Amino acid sequence: RSSTAYVRCLFEAVHFLLTTDPDKNMSNLKADQVLLAVHAELIDMVSNDLSYIHPGDSDQRACEIAIRTFSDWAVKLSEDYAGVIEEGKDETTVQEAQRFLNLVPEAVRTKVVDTGGILEAIANQEEDLPPILYLDEGKSTTIDDKDNATNNTKKESSAKIQFRDLLTWDVEPNTPNPGQVKALLKYDPVDMLLIKERAHTRDEAVDALRQCDLLCVRLGNQDHCVKNPKFLIAALIEHVFVQVVQTPKPRATPWMDPRAALRAEEMKKRRAERTLKEVKKKVH
Known about the structure:
Blueprint: H1 5-20, H2 28-50, H3 57-87, H4 91-123, E1 126-127, H5 146-151, H6 158-161, E2 184-185, H7 202-221, H8 229-244, H9 258-283
Antiparallel strand pairs: 1-2
Helix pairs in contact: 1-2, 2-3, 2-4, 3-4, 7-8
């Protein structure tokens, strides 16, 4: 149901191809090392994506499955190499096993701890909605207390008696459908004053463009608390490319006004004279 079975199928297919190909002639331990490296790349991509995209509940579970699978595979391979060291048949294989046990388990643990920490931090950014407000006996109750509050109410609330005089023969059930559940995230501050007023160097221009991209991402991902995000993104991009980063003036085109065309012709003449002077200096 989670559409993750194909990943396991791919791993099994790669392992089969590596161990059965007569040209490669790869042992099971080395094939398992290749699959562990593939797992590590998958964890790196997950960690990179978590820095830019907030996953939903199902995506978080998929990330947890990937981390557990990576850890289990590393533990299994470490146990296999520990068995190789105990047997001690081939000295070369024993040295490879010792190098593996000295380096790989600690690297795997570091990756798992870092990625798990990012997932835990993302889970802590979600906010729960406040409890539903019921008007029985003038107090707020939760969903679990709804039946008790309704059954134990002796005095009718104002919400029930305001339309008592109307002819109501049949009441249609009204079950709201809010649609797909979306996690309510904590507000990530958007400070547009981080962008400098004017970029005077190339590094400052690159920094301004990066800050603009980061702020646009924050504006687009927080439409639940930022009003008019599309307008703010367009205004921010326009400000950066018009005021902050200096852009060259446009060339003369037929639709330009006469003054702009005249300035463009003057710049063209100056550029031609400068080029002619440089050519004369080189000749002399």
